[in-house]
Design a protein that fits this description.
The protein starts with 14 loop residues before the first strand and ends in a 20-residue tail after the last helix. Strand 9 and strand 10 (229-235) form a beta hairpin. It is built from nine helices and ten strands. Helix 5 crosses helix 6. By secondary structure, the chain is an alpha/beta fold. The chain has a domain at 15-92 and 170-252: P-loop containing nucleotide triphosphate hydrolases (Rossmann fold). Residues 15-252 form the ABC transporter domain.
């Protein structure tokens, strides 16, 4: 049975997920999940591999539709990909995918302002100027603009992905493992940068992370998932008083506890 800090989602929250369920064939990837985040606040989502974290994120951004339950963004029902409010929200959400999803055939600046170029909201000249400005914000040199993703290190690619995610000044920023595979120094730098963006711009941030220290110290809220369910959700300041065995095991990284390693083949990796 799941255990959460509150039994219901906050109906006034900027992001409100209620009993969200997403299935792939006979497999349930997200199972009756409740989630709420206030406007301008940050949330870390933690959990073992195949917990349903990335699927939940893709439901929020609109890649997957909900099979059951609802997703409300600032009061708008966006539960399904064809929801009337989805097109408007497409421009209000920035997303960093787990493996960055940069286009190898485009330059860095074209990657960062890809949406604006495709929609024609910026000329190519203005798009390059905007991208160059964002490169400075994420700590990359102006000269990086004319490189391609293959010319960049993993950490640099990650920062380009973040620059693209914030290029439209989104109201909601979704980050799928922004520090995956990075060294501790660079991980801390990127998380500080994300915190700065949230504070300066009032952006609501939801981030999947495998770094438990970062989850505890850099985010105002935390949600713990396992097997598609939420086992704890609340303020990070309440973690030490949670007395939740799933949460404790995850934070401690212990092999002993209710979370066991899943064996067998995952289909298409959709249950990450």
């Amino acid at each position: 049975m799941t255990q959460t800090a509150s039994s219901q989602t906050d109906k006034t929250a900027f992001v409100r997920v209620n009993k969200l369920t997403k299935r792939f064939g006979r497999m349930t990837a997200v199972d009756s999940v409740d989630l709420s985040v206030a406007k301008g606040e940050t949330m870390a989502i933690i959990g073992p591999s195949a917990a349903g974290k990335s699927v939940l994120m893709k439901c929020l951004v609109g890649i997957y539709s909900a099979d059951e339950g609802s997703i409300f963004l600032d009061g708008d029902d966006v539960s399904r990909a064809d929801s009337p409010a989805r097109p408007e929200w497409a421009a209000k959400i920035g997303m960093l995918f787990q493996h960055n999803a940069l286009f190898d055939s485009l330059t860095v600046w074209e990657n960062i302002c890809f949406r604006q170029i495709e929609l024609g909201t910026l000329s190519r000249k203005a798009a390059k100027e905007r991208a160059t400005e964002l490169l400075g914000l994420v700590g990359l040199a102006e000269e990086s603009a004319d490189l391609t993703p293959n010319d960049l290190s993993g950490g640099m690619q990650k920062r380009v992905g973040i620059a693209r995610a914030i290029s439209s000044d989104p109201e909601l920023l979704l980050l799928d493992n922004p520090t995956a595979g990075l060294d501790p120094v660079l991980s801390n730098h990127i998380e500080l940068m994300i915190s700065k963006i949230a504070q300066q711009r009032g952006t609501t941030v939801i981030s999947i992370t495998n770094d438990m220290q970062i989850a505890r110290t850099r985010y105002q809220n935390l949600t713990m998932m396992h097997d598609g369910k939420v086992y704890w959700s609340g303020k990070t300041s309440d973690i030490d008083d949670a007395h939740n065995e799933h949460l404790t095991q995850m934070l401690d990284g212990s092999s002993q506890g209710p979370i066991t390693m899943r064996t067998g083949k995952r289909e298409d990796g959709v249950y990450a």
